[in-house]
Model the fold of this input.
Amino acid sequence: MKNLKTELKWAVIFSVMALLWMVLEKVCGLHGKYIDYHLYLTNLFAIPAIVVMVMALKDKKKKDYNGKMSYIQGLISGIILSVFIALLSPLTQWITSYVITPEYFPNVIKRSVELGYYKTIEEAEAYFNYRNYAIQGAIGALIMGTLTTAIAMIFIRTKVVK
Done:
């Protein structure tokens, strides 16, 4: 692989975009007043996440491979990008949990018990906490990033004419 600057750059861009998404969720009330809708609307994050991954792969193709990138080259690049995003995700989760929206965990814990998703506050606290979210975020970044790349590279790769 020529270099990893492109992947690192896009991992930072992805992380900043994720933080901006969290600010948007908070401003819209999804971490407070409208927390009942959070479970559903937070999944819309997949849209900008996929867009950023595709932009990163296209940038890699253009800048590092002079416009000609095979499926395997793109897949490797996307996996490396996903690893970088996964490595940054505990930091972005920390910023989200302790800076952007420290009220999210107390709110979601309280509401999940009220709605009966969990029987006790302790059960809800075992799930809704920084450590659990940091682990889920890192694993999710690896899985979803690799899956997105595998699909996107079908369209982004340079097709070989025979």
